Amino acid sequence: MPVSPLADIYQSYNDCIAVASPVGIDQAKLASLGWVRATSQASDGKPIAGAPLIYGKADRKPLIILSDPSGEGLCIVMARLSNRAAFGEFLKAWHGALPAADGNGAISFRDEGHIVQIRQTGTDREPGLSMAVMTPETK
CA–CA separation, 4 vs 47, rounded Å? Predict the structure, then answer.
């Protein structure tokens, strides 16, 4: 996975916020934003049943992975960072308003009714981050 500019990651996060609705993940809206689903095929060329829903966008480096698009679901941004320090730089977009990471390194908060979780991933040699955006709760 190529290194993602921080602006691309943040824009991809905003796309997840936009498509995670109370009734599920709106794949049509994701497509209207320019995201294209990757195809998964077995060695015989047939589609793989139950394959993850992975999307890419030609002008951005991060990937978006979707859980089941109906009902409660997740829109996850996966991105590679240039170095470990880039994670802290990315978090500065929230101007210090994010809570501290939990014991597992996850930072959880709410944004526009969505529960969001950010975590640093990868290795020191190939660092990354994931941002999981849940569909908003309906009450």
Answer: 29
